[in-house]
Each structure stands twice: as structure tokens, then as C-alpha cells.
Amino acid sequence: MSDFGLPYNERLRSFGAVRRLFESGRGGFVYPFRYVVYAEPDSGFSAEVLFSVPKKNHKRANVRNLLRRRTKEAYRLNKALLHGCGKSASVDMALIYSSKEVVDYKTIEYAVRRILSSVAADL
User: Fold this and answer.
1) Cβ atoms within 10 A of the Cβ of 79, count?
2) Would you say 67 and 112 are in contact if contact means Cβ atoms under 8 Å apart?
3) In this model, does residue 32 exceed pLDDT 80?
């Protein structure tokens, strides 16, 4: 049985790690997300993720919180795709919601699943 939690140590929170991610990471776009990934090979497997919904696109905090919660839930349920790849790497990832409209959970989950499977294939 896989662990479906999202503990505190799986969240990207170090300022240095965030800076390294955005300076050296590679990115892409899967509607409605822009994502940035930085993988450091041969350091034992660990995955840390950062979720962002910019205030520029969604002014109301309740909408930003809704989208962030949906994204976290989709990641939490599908992170086994990333953990199950069997590679030894430290992965830092940022998921940035970049659509101006609020999409349903199904669309968010599909996008997160595509992002995780492409990241796992590239490791």
C-alpha cells in the first residue's frame, strides 16, 4: 500500500532550494500549469514540491486557496507515479497555476498526472 499523505518534509520551503530550482531547473507547460523541475541524480530519492497560484491571475484568496487545495490533492493521489520510477534522484518541483479561469478538479488531476509521468520518464 502506498503512502497517500503529503507530509511537511515533502514541501519545498528552503529559500536556497527555491532559488536553485528557478535558476537551474527546466520547465514546461501543461494546461493549466507551468512547471519547473530540478533533479539532482544519485542522491537518494526524495521529492519536494511547491504549489503556487499567483495573485495576479486570481485576486480573491478563497479562489486561490481552492485551486491550491485541488492541486495538492491531485499531487497527493498521483505522486506514486514519481516515487515508483525506481530512480535515485532528488527532485524539486514547482507547480504554478497559470490559467485565468477556474477549472474543475478532473482537469487539474489530468494535468498533474501528465506532469508527473513526464518527469518520471526524464529521470
Assistant:
1) 20
2) no
3) yes
95: which 3 cell numbers?
507547480
User: 97: which 3 cell numbers?
Assistant: 497555476
User: pTM for this one?
Assistant: 0.91
Q: Which residue has the cell 511547491?
A: 50
| Gap between the Cα atoms of 30 and 32, Å rounded | 6
Q: What is the pLDDT of residues 82-106, one digit of tens each?
A: 877 767 788 999 999 999 999 999 9
Q: Provide the residue count of the chain.
A: 123
C-alpha 116/C-alpha 93 separation (Å) is 10
pLDDT for 82 equals 86
Tell me the three state secondary structure of residue 121.
helix
In what order do the strands lie in the sheet containing 89-97?
26-30, 33-41, 89-97, 46-52
What confidence score (pLDDT) does residue 41 get?
80
Please state the three-class secondary structure of 24-50 as a single string.
HCEEEEECCEEEEEEEEECCCCEEEEE
